[in-house]
């Protein structure tokens, strides 16, 4: 496929690492580098399968992880006194992650403070803590792009188990799928992410559907939300877009 979505408008390599650390319940101060590197490279492979235009810093981070992994496999170096050096090759990465995490949380808090003070009343659909509240009063938080990719990977694994019929006239474009998703959301306030792929006929259609979702997320027309970090992903129209009449 020739269609590309620029991934760097969503999240960067440090976001992916923090996502993996949280998902695997890893101590950020004691990262099992081989395990994290393997998971990181798997996500890179999936991004290439989706034909995403991967930002250069993702490739740099992959090289950095491989370098750290190789250093952890080597015996410790000795100093001039014949003593082994105790420097951990992961230290610089941990420092970057902690600093990035701190600034990301600070930016999120500042953004929420600005949103809360733009009007006398709170914006419809969100709480002071940034939790998204649906029309029926259910509380959600906005899901990570990498949470979306994780579920998408599971859907792709099921493709070989199904029987597909190759019918050329049924091929869809990204714009077709964008229209279909928006049409569904005019009828229902929320739809499950997995339900979008139940009637897809082949892998190409599944990928096109996913790319359409990425475009809608990039345009902030929809939100991908979860009730918990491991909860099922749901899709809803962005309340801010509805409010502005976009």
Primary descriptors:
8 helices; 50% helix; 5 strands; 246 residues; Arc Repressor Mutant, subunit A; globular; 2 domains; alpha+beta; 5-stranded antiparallel beta sheet
3D architecture notes:
This protein folds into 2 domains: 1-76 and 86-118, no CATH class; 122-246, Orthogonal Bundle (Arc Repressor Mutant, subunit A). Helices cover 50% and strands 7% of the residues. It is built from 8 helices and 5 strands. It has helices spanning 13-23, 33-49, 56-73, 91-117, 145-157, 174-187, 203-218, 239-244; strands at residues 132-133, 139-142, 190-192, 222-226, 234-237. The protein has a 5-stranded antiparallel sheet with strand order 1-2-4-5-3. The longest helix is centred in the middle third of the chain and has 27 residues, at 91-117. It is globular, with a radius of gyration of 21 Å. The relative contact order is 0.12. Residues 117-130 and 164-169 have low confidence and may be disordered.
Architecture blueprint of SSEs:
Elements: H1 13-23, H2 33-49, H3 56-73, H4 91-117, E1 132-133, E2 139-142, H5 145-157, H6 174-187, E3 190-192, H7 203-218, E4 222-226, E5 234-237, H8 239-244
Antiparallel strand pairs: 1-2, 2-4, 3-5, 4-5
Helix pairs in contact: 2-3, 6-7
């Amino acid at each position: 496929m020739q269609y590309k979505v620029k991934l760097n408008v969503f999240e960067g390599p440090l976001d992916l690492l923090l996502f993996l650390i949280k998902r695997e319940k890893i101590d950020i101060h004691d990262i099992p580098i081989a395990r994290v590197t393997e998971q990181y490279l798997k996500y890179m492979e999936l991004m290439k399968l989706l034909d995403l235009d991967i930002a250069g810093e993702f490739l740099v981070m992959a090289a950095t992880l491989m370098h750290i992994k190789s250093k952890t496999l080597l015996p410790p170096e000795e100093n001039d006194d014949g003593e082994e050096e105790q420097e951990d090759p992961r230290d610089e990465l941990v420092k970057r992650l902690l600093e990035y995490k701190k600034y990301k949380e600070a930016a999120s808090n500042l953004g929420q403070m600005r949103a809360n003070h733009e009007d006398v009343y709170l914006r419809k659909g969100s709480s002071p803590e940034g939790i998204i509240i649906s029309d029926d009063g259910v509380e959600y938080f906005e899901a990570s792009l990498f949470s979306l990719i994780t579920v998408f990977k599971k859907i792709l694994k099921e493709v070989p188990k199904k029987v597909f019929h190759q019918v050329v006239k049924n091929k869809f474009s990204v714009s077709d799928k964008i229209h279909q998703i928006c049409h569904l959301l005019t009828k229902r306030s929320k739809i499950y992410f997995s339900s979008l792929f139940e009637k897809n006929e082949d892998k190409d259609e599944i990928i096109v559907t996913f790319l359409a979702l990425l475009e809608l997320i990039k345009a902030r027309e929809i939100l991908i939300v979860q009730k918990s970090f491991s909860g099922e992903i749901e899709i809803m129209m962005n309340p801010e877009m509805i409010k502005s009449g976009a």
